Fold these 2 entries.
Entry 1:
Amino acid sequence: MSGIAIHGGAGTLDRSAMTPELEQQYLNALSAAVSIGDQIIQKNGSALDAVEAAVKYLEDFPLFNAGKGAVFTHDKTHELDASIMCGNTLKAGAIAGVSGIANPVSLAKAVMEKSDHVLLCGIGAMKFAEFQGFEVLPESYFHTDLRYNQLLQVIHEDGIFLDHSVHTDPPDKKFGTVGAVALDKHGNLAAATSTGGMTNKRWGRAGDSPIIGAGTYANNNTCAISCTGHGEFFIRAVVAYDISCLMEYAGLTLEEACQKVVNDKLVKFGGEGGLIAIDTKGNICLPFNSTGMYRGWKSESSEIFTAIY
């Protein structure tokens, strides 16, 4: 069995504000990302390479809050976070607060494969990137008018904001993170997550995306998880690892564990968002407690499916 699932963020998505043209752009991008990852798997490639490739595509697509489409910080810069994990070895890599890296997920993978560490942050992560030969791009590469206008609307307010506020077009409240999970033909799982964080964020804020066990987790004994939501809640609830634990220690199925965490525990806790998950048998689960989640998936026996609401 094999399979792959991706997400492009979750949140309060106003269907009436989504034009048919814009919706099709999102769906086409989700389908393309699934296809890129699936092609790697079908050629007997690794789940790790599949999730990296799928996330890289979404990082390069400016409508998603990761890589090129990342939101602006209060200082009108971009601070990017990402993580990746191999379910076979339980090795993981993550970066937080980096700037100028087109594909943060690949830098996270380099941390996993070419260092003795799991999480590198800020200046140190940038030095590691340069040492590994990553090109550091100017801020202009990451600039999009949509994201800049979002910042201008809230920069004088005291707080951080989700990647779309009620004043934007489309007017919604979306947790802008991208991610992928996969099971390859060798029975190995992997997960990856990448984000630009929250608009107007300060002081080096990082959410759950670069935190192994909170926003990303993969274990060949259970499942692979990538989360999207209000990061502070997902960190405190240790969402990704909690699902794995419920499967490993309580004997729950993937579906049961996901529903318990996303639609019970998180709701009571005040956390909004969702996640994508795949288990060792290729079962895929994509729960969310918000009005929508950009998502796509393909199992070994199915075609590519995409959805937003």
Entry 2:
Amino acid sequence: MKKKIAILRGGDSSEIDISLKSADVVYQHIDTKKFSPYLVHIEGSDWHATLDGQKYTIDKNDFSFTSKGEKTTFDGIFMAIHGTPGEDGVLQGYFDLLNIPYNCCGSFESAITFNKAMCNALLKQFQIPSAKAVIINKGVNFDIKSIEKEIGLPCFVKPNRAGSSFGVSKVSQNSQWDEAINKAFEHDNQVIIEAFVNGVEVTSGVIEKNGDLIALPLTEIASENDFFDYQAKYEGKAEEITPARISDDNRNQVQSISKTIYRTLNLKGMVRMDYIIENHQAYLIEINTIPGLSEESIIPQQAHCIGMSLKELFSLSIENMFTNDQA
């Protein structure tokens, strides 16, 4: 019997539109010979499944819905919610309580990786380099002159717990501080101020297969804008080159670091890690445990580069959740 898979979409962050696109791509390409897919929307208190054009309220007691007197429960969850409550571990804790497997990291690992500053600080203890950074909290006084002296200019100001480059600014002169910080605080009550690393930006996808890690071909990001912002990511203002035009040594270094991070943090599912290579040293920018899967997204491009179709990619991700659940 085919397993029933809930493809989660929506969320409560600025990334909701990206989530809708990701979920639609998964729904369109999932192998329906193996799985029965259902789109389930989660946004605030509105939890509903869509079936034959009709919406059915999800019973949060057991994550089910009833249609025409028949109750539907799910065998597994395909997480396509970027941001909270999908990428930060909130829903994973809920599904753990219900004993429903999912295709991504657990609650603790998701919470750690979603917090950019804390994650990078933790990984530095395992000799994973990242840019120098300072955290500021909303409502707490900070001395911007001291921060500028410590971090230097130019630098990046970004929400600590957000994605898709929402609220990110590059600060090149001190007159830009207020606008950049206020913009970042619109998306999170914690803001990370990160030193500028000057080099080639690449992104590395990793997925598990039969207990082994597959490091997908790297993608090089060549943005038309000052950095890889939302417009560059989703509105065609960047060239995404797969495989990246870097040396074998640099490629091997990035892929090796990515596998080390995956194992060290006990990650699961499809994971994308972003880096900047400066003077032949890769510096981690951030980890995305629920990477975008829209037509514009990078993981699908990397899978295509090795001849893996989206159907194969999504099947592997779903099959992994059941293998890991049994293990």
